[in-house]
């Protein structure tokens, strides 16, 4: 059952009040996160939240509470929030206070949610470990429970959002997913991380990394809460976001609940892509994958092999396309209108529009951006250069189309190997990440770090919905392991249903 709905019942019955609920959340965070987990970059205080708390309590008192009334929610620090710092975990924006709310923030507030803070992340959402940010690394809450007792990464780039839910600081949080930035930290931290179909949630106010890939999404303890949050956030926003699409759901939560009432696992066909059997895959995750397949078949579900042949090209193609878009999107951060300005800039500006201005741009951006961001800007600029665009960027776009076509073929039933009946697949099951959470001081080289996204990137390239669900604890290190489920574009409600089924069927008690 929804944990959010359980808390709302307590609020309605007056067993707890909104002030105590918010205060308890802030006390937990101040006791642990700032000193240990480093989940938050900006944390609100009771004084700042006083008006919102009073308003929510009044609504409970007169019976007009909204769907998230008084519920503390955390927001990744790349969503603009009016009057609250939005830094993207970068020195470039460390003092930026927006004058407007992102659409996601507005929709949450409209339903009574209390945004208690902005979560830590990889700088400008560029990373797979939440260790590249200006404000330090996010520590996985499972570090203390691990056998080695060493600090582990929370995953990236939405590591803070995943960690604060895993640590029970909040019931739910918001992240963004460009190549796996919700699902991978969800797997590492042992929570549900849902990336919906591209275009269903508005990107207005989400500071861009790669606009054609960036997708807002949610973290929660269970699928019911994820469904509730998606029902609130999936709204067309053509006034602000040209990529926003008309919602295919009257209510995604209602559709999900109808699936739960009227369907069972016997009504679904699950596809297993052999293309995800990569050499980097940890044996424990492979064993978990096999166990879940056995559990599904034992419960009456059908499992078939499927082929996604262009998956092996997804990783290099993604890093060409994403960095190309980042090169363009981050050009606006020059320290002139806003953003970090180097101490040497004042004198250089006096030199006029010649070498002085160029040097000022260089100094502002050199000081303002971290190493990973500069690396990706340079890679993207190279891919878009006159001598490279046809050889790199254009070919990567063609591969993206082929990857999308692979998914369409599987969901239509035209890409099932060794099966003349060409069975239509409802849901694909894969690992979320090749390994579990690794140590913060592992010092992985860039290639090995990028490989962490090898399982999650294809669904971003195709714009299809996908979710990571926690299922068991590693016997080697007592840390969470999860699997990823993927469905046809705009079949997000079916994906929620399938995820709930698999969790109930195969998850250890820690995650039920």
UniProtKB/TrEMBL annotation:
Its EC number is 6.3.5.7. Keywords: ATP-binding, Ligase, Mitochondrion, Nucleotide-binding, Protein biosynthesis. InterPro entries: Amidase (IPR000120), Amidase_CS (IPR020556), Amidase_dom (IPR023631), AS_sf (IPR036928), GatA (IPR004412). It catalyses: L-glutamyl-tRNA(Gln) + L-glutamine + ATP + H2O = L-glutaminyl-tRNA(Gln) + L-glutamate + ADP + phosphate + H(+). The active site is at residues 76, 157, 181. GO terms for biological process: glutaminyl-tRNAGln biosynthesis via transamidation; mitochondrial translation. One of its GO terms (cellular component) is mitochondrion. PROSITE patterns: AMIDASES. It comes from the Eukaryota. Its main location: mitochondrion. The keyword rRNA-binding does not apply. SUPFAM superfamilies: Amidase signature (AS) enzymes. Pfam families: Amidase. The keyword Ligase applies. Residues 22-496 form the Amidase domain. One of its GO terms (molecular function) is ATP binding. It is found in: Mitochondrion. Subunit of the heterotrimeric GatCAB amidotransferase (AdT) complex, composed of A, B and C subunits. Allows the formation of correctly charged Gln-tRNA(Gln) through the transamidation of misacylated Glu-tRNA(Gln) in the mitochondria. The reaction takes place in the presence of glutamine and ATP through an activated gamma-phospho-Glu-tRNA(Gln). Belongs to the amidase family. GatA subfamily. NCBIfam families: gatA. This is Glutamyl-tRNA(Gln) amidotransferase subunit A, mitochondrial. It comes from Polysphondylium violaceum.
């Amino acid at each position: 059952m929804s944990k959010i709905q359980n808390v709302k019942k307590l609020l309605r019955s007056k067993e707890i009040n909104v002030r105590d609920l918010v205060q308890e959340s802030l006390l937990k965070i101040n006791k642990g996160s700032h000193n240990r987990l480093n989940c938050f970059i900006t944390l609100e205080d009771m004084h700042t939240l006083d008006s919102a708390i009073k308003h929510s309590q009044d609504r409970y008192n007169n019976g007009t509470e909204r769907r998230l009334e008084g519920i503390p929610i955390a927001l990744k620090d790349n969503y603009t929030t009016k009057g609250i710092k939005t830094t993207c975990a970068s020195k470039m924006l460390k003092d930026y206070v927006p004058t407007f709310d992102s659409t996601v923030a507005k929709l949450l507030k409209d339903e009574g949610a209390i945004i208690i803070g902005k979560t830590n992340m990889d700088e400008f959402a560029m990373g797979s470990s939440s260790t590249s940010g200006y404000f330090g690394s996010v520590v996985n809450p499972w570090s203390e429970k691990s056998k080695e007792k060493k600090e582990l990464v929370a995953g990236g780039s939405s590591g803070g959002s995943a960690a604060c839910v895993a640590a029970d600081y909040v019931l739910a949080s918001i992240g963004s997913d460009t190549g796996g930035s919700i699902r991978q930290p969800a797997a590492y931290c042992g929570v549900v991380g849902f990336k919906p179909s591209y275009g269903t949630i508005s990107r207005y106010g989400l500071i861009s990394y790669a606009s054609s890939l960036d997708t807002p999404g949610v973290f929660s303890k269970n699928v019911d809460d994820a469904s509730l949050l998606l029902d609130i956030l999936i709204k067309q926003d053509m006034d602000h976001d040209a990529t926003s699409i008309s919602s295919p759901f009257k209510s995604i939560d209602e559709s999900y609940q109808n699936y739960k009432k009227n369907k069972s696992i016997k009504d679904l066909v699950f596809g297993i892509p052999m293309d995800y059997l990569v050499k980097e895959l940890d044996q424990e995750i492979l064993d978990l994958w096999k166990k879940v397949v056995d559990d599904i078949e034992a419960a009456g579900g059908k499992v078939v092999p499927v082929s996604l042949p262009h998956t092996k090209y997804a990783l290099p193609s993604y890093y060409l396309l994403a960095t190309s878009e980042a090169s363009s999107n981050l050009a606006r951060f020059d320290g002139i209108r806003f953003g970090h300005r180097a101490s040497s800039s004042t004198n250089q500006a006096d030199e006029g529009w010649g070498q002085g201005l160029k040097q000022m741009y260089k100094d502002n951006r050199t000081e303002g951006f971290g190493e990973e961001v500069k690396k990706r800007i340079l890679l993207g600029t190279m891919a878009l250069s006159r001598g490279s665009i046809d050889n790199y960027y254009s070919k990567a776009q063609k591969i993206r189309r082929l990857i999308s076509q692979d998914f369409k073929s599987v969901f239509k039933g035209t890409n099932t190997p060794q099966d003349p009946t060409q069975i239509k697949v409802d849901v694909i099951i894969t690992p979320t990440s090749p390994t579990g959470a690794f140590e913060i001081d592992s010092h992985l080289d860039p290639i090995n770090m990028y490989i962490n996204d090898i399982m999650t990137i294809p669904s971003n390239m195709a714009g299809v919905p996908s979710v990571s669900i926690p299922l068991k604890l590693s016997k080697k290190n007592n840390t969470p392991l999860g699997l990823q489920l993927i469905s046809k574009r705009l079949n997000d409600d079916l994906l929620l249903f399938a995820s709930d089924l698999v969790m109930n069927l195969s998850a250890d008690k820690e995650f039920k």
